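Whether sequence alone determines local backbone shape is best considered at the level of individual chains. We regard such an encoding as a compact summary of how the chain folds. The sequence in question and its structure tokens are set out directly beneath this paragraph.
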Amino acid sequence: MMWSLVLIFPLPLVLALNLQSTDVPSMRLYLTWGLIAYSWWLLAILLSVRPTWLGRGVGLPSVYALHGMLGVFALVPAYLHKENTFAPDDLSRFLGDWGFYAALAVLCYSVVFMSGWLTDRSRLALKVKSRLETVFRRRFSVWIHRLNLVVVLMIWLHVHLIGRVNQHFVFMALFDFYTVVVLGIYVWKKWVAPDSFLAGAVQENVALNGSTRKIAIALDRTAATSRPGDFYFLSFEDARLGREWHPFSATDERRDVLTFTIRQTGDYTRRIGTVVPDTRVRLEGPFGRFDSVVNRRTDDAPLVLVGMGAGIAPLLSLAAQYLTDRRIHLLWSVRHADDAYYGTLLDAYERRSGGRLTITIQVGRFHRDQLRALLPEGEVRRGDFFVVGPNPAVLATQRTLRRIGVSRSRIHHERLTM
């Protein structure tokens, strides 16, 4: 249903243009291609505001995937339009051509720095990205990505300068309505709506080991819609962090004080240790579908939770919620022995579960033969698998699980990359 937006969203504009245009059919076709590309750029901007209802319905990773694919898809009709139409003057031609080139440049940059299409699947690409990020930091990348707004404004003006198009009142009114509404929603969500988001103050910021921290945030009001396994986008009011928004998973099921387990790997998270208690925080969300996936099963299918490193965070809240209701097998792989910082907490969960919770912790990744030996036949055949960790590790684990017989429909993850 979500992918149907790709066809439905441009349809009113396409119909309005073709019903009013008196151009020959071949020219109307190429004008239509340009209109479809513009509509897809607008839709990509609309998806970038992270609609909470859509994130709950299909999952934010799917929203991000569609957002990224629209950027790729739009270039094809945009190119067909550019190569087969003519502009009446130099300004409209300049705006159209450079709007296309700017969109292409932003896409190429985003594929490397804003998505996981390459870096999640290639160690070389990940290493190159890590080195380049010392110069092209995330905040810079976000602003580069926002050049898509400039592209939209260039194309909007380009259309207004074309006489054979701007003479059609109904089409132009609808064209402007689409543009104003989408950009208005973007401005509202990015700069106005944050004042209504959840807010709180840092209660504690402690090191769990040399590379991971636990941050507890006392909320001003209860997170009433929070569910186990959810994640939030956090923005700290700290000049050293630049008030950027970054996603982190809640570690427990509390709704008045949210705890986040953060591994310090990137240029942003390496500075997270400087955040002092009482620092104000805004939280966008919650997002996540893990809990709804668990509840959609009408039987008592076992839950298999596979966490890698700090990826254990959302799985802890799922385990705490269903300790006494479902049979749970939690597998946690860590890089070093001191990374198993929640061992004591898991022991307590195991005692409370009355034998329903099985815990396996090991140093190093779980391999195929190990998983075959560790997972009973019933879990492989019926269980719901939740995999959380670094994106390349999640992809590798998914492949391994499928090879031992777990169906794709029962493997769930939330990788926040396009």
Residues 60-84 form the longest helix (25 residues). The two ends are 19 Å apart (CA to CA). The CA atoms of residues 333 and 388 lie 11 Å apart.
